[in-house]
Known about the structure:
The complex is a heterodimer of chains A (about 260) and B (about 300). Chain A has about 260 residues and is of the alpha/beta class. Chain A has 6 helices and 14 strands. Chain A is globular. By secondary structure, chain B is α/β, with parallel strands linked by helices. In chain B, the strands form 4 sheets. An 8-stranded parallel beta sheet of chain B has the order 3-16-15-10-9-8-7-4. In chain B, β12 and β13 form a beta hairpin. In chain B, α2 packs parallel to α3 (about 140-155), α3 (about 140-155) packs parallel to α4 and α4 (about 170-180) crosses α5 (about 220-230). The longest helix of chain B has 16 residues, at about 270-285. The chains are: A alpha/beta (about 260), B alpha/beta (about 300). Chains A and B meet through loops of A and β5 and α7 of B.
Amino acid sequence: MDGAFPVAAHLGQVLASEPVGARYHRLLIDAPALSAAVVPGQFCHLLCPGLYLRRPMSVWRAGPGQPLGFLFRIAGPGTAALAGLRAGDVLDAMGPVGRPFSLDPSWQRILVLARGVGLATLSLLALRAAASGIAVTAILSARDPADLMQAEFTGGAAMDLRTVFDSDGSSAVPAVEALLAQDIARARPDAVFTCGSDRLLRLLQTIAARENIPGEAAIEQRMGCALGLCFSCVRRIATADGPRDLRVCREGPVFDLQGVEAW
Amino acid sequence: MVDLATRIGRLALASPVMPASGTFGAELAEVFDLNRLGALVTKSVTPEPRRGNPTPRVAETGQGLLNSIGIPGKGLAAWLAYDLPVWRRFSAPLIVSLSAPTATAFAEAARALTVPGVAAIEANISCPNLEEDGRAFAADPGPAAAAIAAMVAATHLPIWAKLSPNTGDVAAVARACEAAGAEALVVANTILGLAIDLDTLAPALGAGMGGYSGPGFKPIALRLVWQCAQAVRLPIIGCGGITTGADAVEFLAAGATAVQVGTATFVQPEAMLRVTEGIADFCSKRGYARVADLTGIALPNYPRLAAE
């Protein structure tokens, strides 16, 4: 990486392109400089074959000497085109961009609350925490056990895992609230993180405020440039100076948990 | 070595390639050295703070981008206090895009922008004119000329008029801006368009209609440049769908003296550098010593009588 110009479009060869369950897909890319530079919570802006605009994609796997990984739900033409890439193809990934999660090495434990594809965004944070000796409590929510990407989330790292599902009612907000209260009472986290569900975001805001625990949320918005130039991707965020329309690509995608207004 | 230097009225530029307003910010300095650009062009500054339009503000459609951002910003006073010092760190000339709701407001803002560090004002007269029931200044020669004349009277800075494709007679608007004292024309802003989201069967943009830009718009913008170049003697800055050096050469041949690159930066953040290199390659392969030699070659009345 050139220190003066930290953001670039990297051309990386696709090492693996595989479906995960019925609705998800993973890509592993050989892009050493980009992979080494990514900090959890940051994202890349990907050129999708056959489409004009890039699509923002949170990073699932990264690190020095490791392939760059993306794990996503096939939701539209952009993600379908990315899932159509095959080993040996070249992906143009611009990055790293965005404000990352905070991870204080003095913390003893973090709690992550993830729903659906929000697992991908929070997985890298959980892995980095675990690798630096910070305990991780992870509550993972999915439609049903087949839709849960537990192995993809933990990457083999030891974590205190709780799984909840729509299929058995355990993912209902009151049930998750009880689970969170129990977990926080048993092993209080120094910080909480969430991604993937508006309902769970609001629940975590309430509990974290009550318990006085700091937290962050990663959020999504349709993007143009991903470089802070076009002001397409704004979201209303409560700041010390009052509510502001902040750019998800620049001031985000990670925001203070209590600052994100429900949408 | 091809000479890339060019001149827009009183302003000497080291390169004919600059960003299009609204697609550029100092943040791009994280990708490349912005002093390699011919000029820096800001997002439109407005006299008062504006929140901008509801999201979604962009949609991909055809070979291009539909946008309706709504010129969000902190207003002129805060721009002078907080943004101008950031821009002063760069050496390329700073062109401030200005949008205002009335001719008088344009003039007052132009006066306030007459400060060290601002090289010229690009008048975004494609915005709604509150005195004409919200119709864009640039839709008709009269209101366009009134806004330009008010600014010219208020500042010694060069005024560049950014024309709109959303008009019946772009040549008439171009002539009116020339007569009102504009020093250059920027041709053109985005063309109004619409996209429907097939999931919701509602407009894809929060604001409904939007401005279409990108490669699909290029032939229209090129035609506008060609028409304006035959109507006025002012230097023209071509803008619309330019992605490659070849695209830029088309605009220069159609009568442009410089070009702006906008949406292409969203696809390739170094697009402006690629366009610059592409122009230089074309010139050296085809034996043009100076990029300025390309201007207007394709015009029926070439050699064009350029402005002094």
